[in-house]
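Problem 12. The chain below contains 235 residues. Write out its predicted structure in token notation.
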Amino acid sequence: MNKFITGKIKMSNQNIKIATVVIIAAVTIAFCGCRPGGQSKSRLDLKNEMPVKLSCVIAIDQPDGSKYFTKQKQLLYPEQKTLLFSAEEPEAVFKWSVAGSSYNQPKSAKLPPRAELMFSREISTALLELYLANTTGSIQTAGADFSPEATINIDGQIYGRVSGDKSIELYQNRQSKKIDTAKTTGKISYIIQGYNYHKIENSEIILPTKIDVFVLKAGQNKQFAAQFSIFVEKF
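Solution.
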């Protein structure tokens, strides 16, 4: 051990500088939760934007008919198109994020039984998209497609497709003109609907105060899965 320490002391100044840079880079990557070459948004990218701090109470339907209640903290960065999540569960504290189309899943070996819904990439991304859809002024310029092949009917309401990729499609309510519905495709298909929209004072940000999540069954039937009650903590 003494020999190892002596070797460290005898490092040249150049090697010490190189080692210092490597250590700083490694610590920065670990702190930000991003990988070299990845597209994840680091916290350093977000330092110049004040986030919208959201607190969510989530009621999740259980197979036995009961409900599981939990809380989430969310930080929304509209300009960076980023949403950071944190949840304190009995198993651990979980953190995950969505930045554009990039998703960083929770880093934990022990995920709770509710993980498939709580940490779903599709649901997390849909929440971000719904938050942004009526925040950026797109409500007036969405240009939704209301042709028969691009519409869905939910409880008698007609929704026209605004945008979509392979995993998530956004829909505009024909009557309210709000982009308040997302449809996901993946291992499980979900319908995510926002309502009771509220404009944050002194801003252009319009957010839903409630979001319902449904599992889409065969024949376009939907089954209630969870409800988010959303409160703005600080802006």
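Discussion. The chain has six helices and twelve strands. Students who got a different answer should revisit the alignment rule from Section 12.3.
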